[in-house]
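User: My collaborator sent over this chain with a note saying "see what the structure looks like." That's all I know about it. Can you take a look?
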Amino acid sequence: MSNIVIYSTKPMPEMQALLADIDEAEVRVVSIEQMKDYAVINPSLMIVENIELAKDALMTNKFPCPILFFGPTRRDVTVRAEGFDFIKDPSNKDELIVRVNALLRIKTIKDKLEKVSTTDDLTGLHNRKYLQERLEEEISRSKRYGTKLSCILFDIDFFKVVNDMFGYEWGDILLRNIANKLNAMIRKEDILTRYGDEEFLLVLPNTSEENAFLFGERFRREVEKMEFIPAGEEEAHKVTISGGISTYPCMPDVDEDANTVIRYAEHALYNAKHRGKNKIIQFSQMNLEM
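Assistant: Without extra context I'll predict from the sequence alone. Here is the result:
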């Protein structure tokens, strides 16, 4: 549903009534002073009744949605938004509806493009592009508040054997099954991405290494219990998964970024593979290996 927000100096029941014909749209009116708090309301389209009173907010914010202004076209105002337009006579219902629908389509198209660019086609999970941006944000937040941030890099053991024995179609089915199982176990704030062909990287904000290990072990056991039976087979093909954990901050007196934290998780994963697979290894415990 589209969220249309009218920023005004007064109630505007007539405007709300005119916009009532927009399909699947909720329309509300709030004070123009609340423009700076747009993220709380998360509008799909902003309608601004008084551009003069909005100038400060327009100069200091980048709005992730289109804006429709009432009044004559202005070229002397800086607008940082997904798109914007002006309407001289907002009481003209037909013109208002056309302009509002056009701006809402811009928002819909941009949202779809963003989702396509950050989503893995096969599994529907986020991809590495999305991961890089979000992990840097989470590391900054972890540093600011002094909280732990853990990453688990999972890799399906002997995945090439599945492709070789049963074909790539069944390899894709296995990837989707594991992605769905993992996605169902994580929290809303966790970030799950398809990292490589048979690798998944899970970012766990505000999570210690110990708790990340408990989660990794629980998922490893769930995968172990999977019944993966390709077509034509009478018995289930055994599936296992290995994982490597890194927790920010990983090492003292080291300037660590997203690439560093991922690299440490990769080292721990390689260690798990080296030790026989079907294991979850913590980066901090690697030097304790017997």
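A starting point for your reply to your collaborator: The two ends are 57 Å apart (CA to CA).
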